[in-house]
Amino acid sequence: MSEDIRSRLEEICSRTVKCLEEAANSETLNEIRVAVLGKKGELKELMKGLKDVAKEERPKVGQMVNEARDLIEQNIAMVRDRIEKEKMLYDLEHEKLDVTLPGRKAEIGHRHPNQIALEEVERIFVGMGYEVVEGPEIEYDEYNFTKLNIPADHPAKDEQDTFYINKEIVLRTQTSPVQARVMEEGKLPIRMISPGRVFRSDEVDATHSPSFHQVEGLVVDKNITLADLKGTLQEFARAVFGPETKTKFRPHHFPFTEPSAEMDVSCFKCGGKGCRFCKGEGWIEILGCGMVHPHVFEMCGIDPNEYTGFAFGVGLERIALLKYEIDDMRLLYENDIRFLKQF
Ligand code: DAH
User: What is the chain's pLDDT, residue by residue, as a tens digit (343 residues)?
Assistant: First the structure.
């Protein structure tokens, strides 16, 4: 009987050791361990036969089984070591890191075309001695309209054009109210520009947005004339659109200036011959301007007999769209980094 068990043990041991040698991963290793040493494993099954063994032989047989178990356990431990080493080598090989490769750059955004245009406008006027002043986006009706000589029945005051917060307070529809604020402060002479956001109750399309940006300009001093206005704005146009740029002043009407004009620049694509870009005109409208209206001076506490001045307002988006030849204003508000990165 004990001989029978011995030969079965030998067979189990040699088969198991062979299987272990071939085991390639810890799952297979575990399966082998359970099949031989587990609760329902081959060794446990064999132990059940112990009761049929003669009493005096039992210790010997028990010892044989223990030796077989020790042998298998030692082999399992060895094979586990081998598998772990193999896995480590595999991982080292496959997770190899080339520390000399350049890192992956995080996208941190990009300067917006509006911002680039604004910085250019500011640079030009600051270079001419202007100060940059900011005013509130939420503004009194009085500054946005009344003090700028815009009468109560002016179409711009219609709710269709203006966002009213209440009867007296609006989202400013232009940066011109900053003129009134600066003049009221009474520090003369004045040479300022005021960039900022304005709001109009417009539907969004390729050329309109309910919120856009303007840069206001104001000069007040003794003996300021229309020639100063023209010279300054010509200089500005050449700085933005190139030294060959010609300018043209067309009579226009703004309530807060008299006389008023719109300034066109010669098309910088075709030099004025007429092309698709300027819609065959040769000229592109750029800004509104004029000599400060005496009523505005009076309402803001400046004596129009002593002082004169000029003012202008330019759309920042318009400058950015023209300079970068962007044909849809909506692109400026989407902040798609792939678009912004082009400028
Ligand atoms: N505020 C005017 C607008 O939004 C632009 C403008 C025109 C501003 C003439 C001025 C100016 O200061 O003198 O259309």
Answer: 678 888 888 899 999 999 999 988 999 999 999 999 999 999 888 888 878 888 888 888 888 888 999 999 999 999 999 999 999 999 998 988 888 999 888 888 899 999 999 999 999 999 999 999 999 999 999 999 999 999 999 988 888 899 999 999 999 999 999 999 999 999 999 999 999 999 999 999 999 999 999 999 999 999 999 999 999 999 999 999 999 999 999 999 999 999 999 999 999 889 899 998 899 999 999 999 999 999 999 999 999 999 999 999 999 999 999 999 999 999 999 989 999 999 9
| Alpha carbon nearest to ligand 1 atom 5, residue | 313
- Point out the ligand 1 atom lying closest to the alpha carbon of residue 313: 8
- Alpha-carbon gap, residue 133 to 216, rounded angstroms: 10
> Is any ligand 1 atom within 6 A of the Cβ of residue 296?
no
Does any ligand 1 atom lie closer than 6 A to the CB of residue 176?
yes
| pTM of structure | 0.72
CA distance 239 to 181: 28
171, 174, 218, 310, best to mutate for ligand 1 pocket (most atoms within 8 Å of CB):
174
DSSP codes of every residue in 217-240: EEEEETT--HHHHHHHHHHHHHHH
